[in-house]
């Protein structure tokens, strides 16, 4: 009994420690005037001379003198070996962390000056392991836009190649997903996550290995859905499978925290450099 109380006390203490921790990135809901809200956001991204190390390992730079530009409405793929900093770029664009040196700008404005909650409403992320909550499929899609209409939910599901499989379920959009989406397959969960991203109508779309954990058939369906929603949006794609970046406007090869090659698929392959060697391995 005493040991159980001690364990419970330690668990509660760790929870309160997390709740009491102050984030270095202010929440505009609690900070009053949280920053700039642009009249219009087009989604052009500029990362200039960025140095970054995670707070837990300040001595190890993940990005060093990193430069990247993504023009509004275009798509770019980030490729390279594991641990080179690709997913870190995604985290910095979302402002989950602030850079140690340099800047990340959207439409020419440093994102540290923007209202953080306003800014994130204009971005959407689809990751390798989609977060599916306990609740219905409809509720999971509507987490992208809480006041969405039924028509918006259906349109988002159709764009994500999800409407057909959802409609075939006994309870349709009211089907319970289960804890962490245990009632759904990997491809189904990913398409629901894409529908959640679509319903936000984001200006900036971030795809972090969105198809790498899927079988070939599911990957094709998910890739078709991603191709649909990338049109007209600024899109950053992190990929290991190089066939998923063939049709992007440009590709940046990242090595040791720097962009070492940049161009479209054909240009980089003809260059016979690092990207060419990556294609040979695959």
Automatic annotation (TrEMBL):
Localisation per UniProt entry: Membrane
Superkingdom field: Eukaryota
Key word Nucleotide-binding present: yes
Coiled coil: none
SMART domains: AAA
Membrane topology category: Multi-pass membrane protein
Record-given protein name: ABC transporter B family member 8
């Amino acid at each position: 009994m005493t040991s159980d109380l001690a364990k419970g006390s330690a668990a509660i203490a760790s929870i309160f420690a997390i709740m009491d921790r102050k984030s270095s990135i202010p929440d505009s809901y609690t900070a009053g005037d949280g920053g700039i809200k642009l009249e219009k956001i087009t989604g052009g991204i500029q990362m200039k001379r960025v140095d970054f190390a995670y707070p837990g390992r300040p001595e190890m730079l993940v990005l060093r003198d990193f430069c990247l530009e993504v023009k509004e409405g275009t798509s770019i793929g980030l490729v390279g070996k594991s641990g080179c900093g690709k997913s870190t770029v995604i985290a910095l664009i979302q402002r989950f962390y602030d850079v140690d040196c340099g800047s990340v700008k959207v439409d020419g404005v440093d994102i540290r000056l923007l209202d953080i909650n306003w800014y994130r409403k204009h971005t959407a992320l689809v990751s390798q392991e989609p977060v599916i909550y306990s609740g219905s499929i409809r509720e999971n899609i509507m987490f992208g836009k809480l006041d969405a209409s039924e028509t918006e939910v259906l349109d988002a599901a159709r764009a994500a190649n999800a409407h057909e499989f959802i409609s075939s379920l006994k309870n349709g959009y009211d089907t319970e997903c289960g804890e962490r989406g245990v009632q759904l397959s990997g491809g189904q969960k990913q398409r629901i996550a894409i529908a959640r991203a679509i319903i936000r109508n984001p200006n900036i779309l971030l795809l972090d290995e969105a198809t790498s954990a899927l079988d070939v058939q599911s990957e094709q369906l998910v890739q078709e859905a991603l191709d649909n929603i990338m049109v007209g949006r600024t899109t950053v794609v992190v990929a290991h499978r190089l066939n998923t970046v063939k049709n992007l406007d440009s590709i940046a090869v990242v090595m040791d925290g720097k962009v070492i090659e940049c161009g479209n698929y054909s240009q980089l392959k003809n260059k016979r450099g690092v990207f060419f060697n990556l294609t040979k391995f695959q």
